[in-house]
Amino acid sequence: MDVDTRLLRYFAAVAEEGHLTRAAERLFVSQPALTKQIKQLEAQLGTTLFTRSRHGMALTDAGRVLADRVPALLDGWDHACRETRAAGKRVLRVGFLASAANEATPAIIAAFGRRRPGWRVDMRQAAWSDPTAGLAAADVDVALLRLPFPGQDELRVRELLSEPRWVALPASHPLACRDEIEFRELWDEPYVAAPAETGWWRDHWLGADEREGEPRIGAVTDQPDEWLSAIANGYGIALAPESAARFYARPGIVYRPVRGLSPTRVGIAWHPADDDNPVVADFVACCLDAT
After folding, report:
1. pTM score of the predicted model
2. Taken in order 183, 236, 218, 163, is the CA torsion positive or negative?
3. What is Dmax (Cα atoms) for the chain?
4. How far apart are CA 195 and CA 27, in angstroms?
5. C-alpha span between 228 and 248 (Å, rounded)
6. Chain centroid to CA 4: how far?
7. 243 C-beta neighbours (distance < 10 Å), count
């Protein structure tokens, strides 16, 4: 019987969290989708893995047996995949989110090429619905990310740089003519937000910790083009890194500095299992040197 490793990762998250909602937030999937995947795994195995109640998800005897074995199984599979890729071709997979280390990226890749002749960097852009840019699913080896992000305590993270958070506004907005805006003046505005399953990463870009009251959501997007279109069409405003004004300049949108907000940070992240991987270590060193 063949079982998709993704189902096992989902099972492991639910087993560790003991709660579907928390596991779904950790995996960046919706709760109904996660429930469906768990039921699919139970159907394939022909047994019930969880006892469901309003208090959460408790492992059955069969579930405990699987929970004891899955972590080692997944670690072994991830290690085998990394070794196979390294033996087959010299490619380092680097996940990234839009605007993360944009200006430094060419210098990082050039420096890595000098350190590792014959190696190629495969840059993979992730949607904002996955703030780990593929690391959580082991789809990439390292990732350039905006900090903080959900699940970062389970990964190795080094901060590379920080920059102010600005605001992106429709050009027709009454505050668009200002040179600088107080964040308090933006509290009641509708916002273009990341998907809800991104948890406190989304909250960071809504300024949730630095405002009073709940933010109003005017639109939800997970790609830069959709985000820009929503702002330009007047569905809401959005907080953005200062560099967005250079990389995402669009007709109909203006970017302005905001007072009263802490800066945003960019980091490099990788799995603890790769602590001894010299290729990953070289890429991290290039990131630190370039920033």
Report:
1. 0.68
2. negative
3. 64
4. 13
5. 8
6. 23
7. 21
Tokens of 193: 């937000």
Give yes or no for a contact between 231 and 169, defined as CB atoms under 8 angstroms apart: yes
Pairing of strands 165-170, 253-259: antiparallel
Tell me the Cα Rg of the chain.
Answer: 21
Mean pLDDT for each 10-residue chunk of the chain (291 residues)?
Answer: 79 88 82 88 89 85 89 80 65 83 82 92 87 88 87 90 94 95 96 87 90 93 91 96 88 95 92 90 92 78
Full DSSP string of the chain: ----HHHHHHHHHHHHHSSHHHHHHHHTS-HHHHHHHHHHHHHHHTS--EEEETTEEEE-HHHHHHHHHHHHHHHHHHHHHHHHHHHH--EEEEEEETTTTTTTHHHHHHHHHHHSTT-EEEEEEE-TT-TTTTTTTT-SSEEEEEES-TTGGGSEEEEEEEE-EEEEEETTSTTTT-SSEEGGGGTTSEEEE--GGGTHHHHHTTTGGGSSSPPEEEEE-SSHHHHHHHHHTTS-BEEEETTHHHHS--TTEEEEEEET-PPEEEEEEE-GGGTT-HHHHHHHHHHHHH-
Phi, psi of 53 (to 5 degrees): -150, 175
Give residue 141's identity as a one-letter amino acid code.
Answer: D
| ∠ CA 279-12-64, rounded to 5° | 135
User: Which residue, among 97, 184, 180, 106, has the nearest Cα to 140 in the 3D structure?
Assistant: 97
Q: Tokens 């998800």 label which residue? A: 57
